């Protein structure tokens, strides 16, 4: 099996994971997560909740979401079907890259996954129809601690590849970031 490779990004802790896989005449076997291999990302990495979303139409956007402390969460994201423009925004109070975003294209055929540390907001745009995304969460979902940003928030300036579509009422109604927003301490 090809070894897993970790790639840093300009946002400290946000890491691209080139998952280990082996291909043969039958197809491909991919190791999505291994405690030992990904210990370097976060000691004691543990995922009490795993979610799966299916998005039907190209251009649809889900997010940007995060959870406030004490329910702040890191996420490991894997595209299982189609292709997405996956975005993480640094919300960590005092971070030198506060409110900066970074995006990566993930697709079901490639080895790339992304690890998003606690303190980041996450969202994605479907670049194909029929997208499925797998999320491994380091915290349980807590409606009381949910936070959200509008994907078109002018303070973020995210360069989405396609016109935004199919936002949920929650995402479309997300309040713009106030000038006084100082971030979260995960
Ligand atoms: C996350 C979650 C949600 N829910 C309920 C809440 C809503 O009634 C429904 C859909 O949740 P939401 O509209 O937040 O789903 P998305 O807009 O697809 O958000 C997801 O996609 C973006 C990109 C993310 O990063 C979030 O982690 C993830 O929540 O499931 C649950 O019951 N359990 C859960 O763990």
TrEMBL record:
EC numbers: 5.1.3.13
Highest taxon above the source species: Bacteria
Ranges in coiled-coil conformation: none
Reaction(s) catalysed (UniProt annotation): dTDP-4-dehydro-6-deoxy-alpha-D-glucose = dTDP-4-dehydro-beta-L-rhamnose
Matches recorded under SUPFAM superfamilies: RmlC-like cupins
Function: Catalyzes the epimerization of the C3' and C5'positions of dTDP-6-deoxy-D-xylo-4-hexulose, forming dTDP-6-deoxy-L-lyxo-4-hexulose.
Protein name in the entry: dTDP-4-dehydrorhamnose 3,5-epimerase
